[in-house]
What does this fold into?
Amino acid sequence: MEKSNISRRSVLQVGGAASLAAAFGLAAGQPASASTLLGSKPQATEILDLGPAVVQFSLMSGLLVGDVLYIGSRNLDPVRIIAFHVPTGKVIGQTEISNGHSIQTLAADASGRYLYAGVLQKSTGVLPNLFRWDLNSLGTKATAIGYIGDRDVRDLSVAPNGRLYIVGGGSPTAPALWEFDPANGQITSLGIPDAGATLARAVAATDSTIFFGAGSTLNGGSGASRACLFAYDRAAKTFTNVTPAEMLKDPSIRDLGIVGDKLMVSSAGSLENSKIAAVSLSNPKTYVQTLSEGKTAKNFAAIGDKVYFANETGLIAYSLSANAISAVPYQGPSLGEIWGVDTKGGKVLVTSGYGFVAEIDPATGSTKTTDLGEAGAPSDPQSVMGIAAGAGYVYVGGNGVIARRSLRTGQVNNMSAPGEAKDAIVVDGALYTGQYSGQGIWSYDPRNGKPITQVADFPKEQNRPLDVCWDETNKLVLVAAQADTEGGGSLWTYDPRTGKKGFFLNPIDNVQLLRAVASRDGVAYLGGGNPNLDGAGTVVAFNPVAGKELWRLDAGEGAGIAALAVQGKYLYGVTRKGGLFVIDLPKRKVVHRSDITSVSYGFAALVTNRGAVYGVSNTHVFRFDPKTFEVATVVADIDGAWYSGSHINNDEDGYLYTMRGRNLVRINDHPRR
It folds into this structure.
């Protein structure tokens, strides 16, 4: 728990005009007039640093090697691997990685000496995304071994002969299968088996065959490939499609694992639940399969006839002999998102995204948990997601957690919540969040003493809630959600008074991803766009009670919409290409367009505050003149540490909250009227 005292932090007490300019948020080199510095009209913009927004040891992978569980961090800087000694329950080592923001995959060679790690990163380039740690010397740092051409490394597998195989994605091209030969240090592409796939998340290797699992977990729809499993013959250097027929309509292959003479295969669910198949390694066309529970199936580990794996709510067992699925009994705290499943001494070890390791007896469900922070894992500020403020608190979403900060005392409490709060609002003192992935709407009221809980669920394939707003006329929480695997999206509604929910599928179309929602006089205004920057950017006026479209127009001019906000009779929209459009709502007409690439490009967020519309991008906080629509910089080079798009929100007093680096800041700005 982090504690701070806001009363000690009022605007920074610093000397000299340059320091005062920094305290008031003036850009470097910007002239500071006497009236600005001394607080006379016009009032200066004040920035209050509230400290790190979300502090925890956030994780994204786990792998047991001998007695040590190696755990890869997520959204921490620097990214790192910790070594958790299972018998003693203590962290006995760690290493920092020189690039990337998260480690989703770890793999060890057959000897147990070398641990390989692959990272996720923000951009494609020549920086390394593959690393190796010598486990015989935990005090030495992991070394870079090179990079694959795909931006992100999603899975690794070491063949018995020591060669490493790598898959991932995130680049403009379809994902390839990559090989690292430790004998010569070379990384080689073995080819792209499916040009329509957008992401590969699974690989498993024998000496003769490498299995490659892919599909379109992100950027689905619009003709992207569905689940595909390929067998690569090392001798012939050819790919053969061996996808189980029952998985062909699923979005992607989720995971692969070798258990004896079987290849365990799972699909990512969407319209249907995940599926599990046990495939013959010697004849991959021969398999048995069954339907699993939930939409996720990953991290295979076996004890005898049982193969254990994780879904989105807990631990599942698959019987090889019976080809049957069963839930594993469990007596313990919620496991949240599971990033590692291993077995040791007849027990199942689960690495939980909530920051603990659970040792579970699969026969009885009895459980021992160890908090990684208490075991010695470092807690650091992480990059964040949604922000909401009101009733004396600021809430910031992280991975598996929402940090609640008291504006009166400065005390911060981390509340466990599944997945990620992509966006949120506070209404009448209560918090409402849109929870990724496919977790629906959650709510927390600090006055009733109850933990945060789900208040509305929706189809799991509508998995990414990107924007949350309040409809004051209809008293509804409105959520714009995109469907990563299917394309399109949905509008969710929730009435806090009655608990009634509404769901409206593809209110724009079945291609444009629904990314933004704003409200005026009981009408919801929805903004969409294609997965890439180009294409339609449609605004739809929608009745959220009747579920009916009122009108639409293409406002984006060839670019998808990043954010919407209403001020007076005008609907403001920012596109992902850095364009501003303003619609006169009574006239249903675009009355202004301008280029704002100087302050915004890519994802952005908007909020109406003190009679003006404010925005934040990855780099700047800005506002629009309510009469001329001219853009002005409020805070330059704010460079918030965002995990999935920037956010800005306000409280009842008109203070704005956003991120500067990994710190939460409060902005007091007075727009000209």
